[in-house]
Amino acid sequence: MQGSQEARGGGGSVAVVLPLPSPAELDDLADRGWPALEREALGPWTLRFADGVTNRANSVLPSGRVDAVAVPDLVAAAEQAYRRRGLPTVFQVSPATDAALPAELAARGYREHSATRILVADRATIAAASAAVAIASLPSEPWMELWWSVDGRGDRAAQAVAERILTGVQALYAASGPVERPDAVARLAVVDGWGGLFAVATRPEARRRGHAATLIRAVADAAAVRGVERLWLQVMADNTAAVALYERLGFVQASGYSYWTESAH
Question: Residues of CATH 3.40.630.30 domain(s) within the chain?
């Protein structure tokens, strides 16, 4: 565990998050909250595969300390595994990653991208019931259609793979607006007393109306019966509007990561 931190929520009260989880714990939670369809162990690392759909589910999670002299061989073995599947080799690198790895990836010409912040909050600080939000244990077709139209990358086959990833772990699916055509959606993965916010998406014409905040508060409220006590989320570091929203709700930064992708051959 790391040290404590506090943030002032939108209502003016101070939300204390004590203690902050470690980067390694957050890496593990996110891995389990967005599970790959296939996994292979490579020493202390985990190779994740899901037909190329999403970075997280198709990247190496290099957890655990390794001897620096073993890093080049481990990277080479990972590259072979991804090439056998016709996929680029991608590493998820966080503060929990062995320090020798980024230097090795840079030397091999890997490109660092998608810098992401990980924020956390106590569930009770965020929670607020809303009759305007529908919550289900599986994503409906309109839920999937909206999320994929905003955040999806690929065709119908890729969308089907994404749905398998989403439903690979217990989760809550929140939607606001008409049932047949929601204005906004969000997913909360339930992992060992934690709730991980993923797939927060709002229809372009419905933005700036408070839908995201309402969904997050409602799904946090609903998660109490699932034993959730704390929340985490990932947000792109350069998405200043989203970061500001989450901080107003009471989230504080606990860690971060970026992806490193091999250069095209």
Answer: 5-20+119-255
Tokens representing 171 are 């989760």
- Domain at 5-20+119-255: CATH architecture: 3-Layer(aba) Sandwich (3.40)
Whole-model pTM: value is 0.91
Give me the pLDDT at residue 6, please. 59
Q: How high is the mean pLDDT of the chain? A: 93
Unique residue bearing structure tokens 């690929």: 154
Note the pLDDT tens digit of each residue in 101-141. 999 999 999 999 999 999 999 999 999 999 999 999 999 99
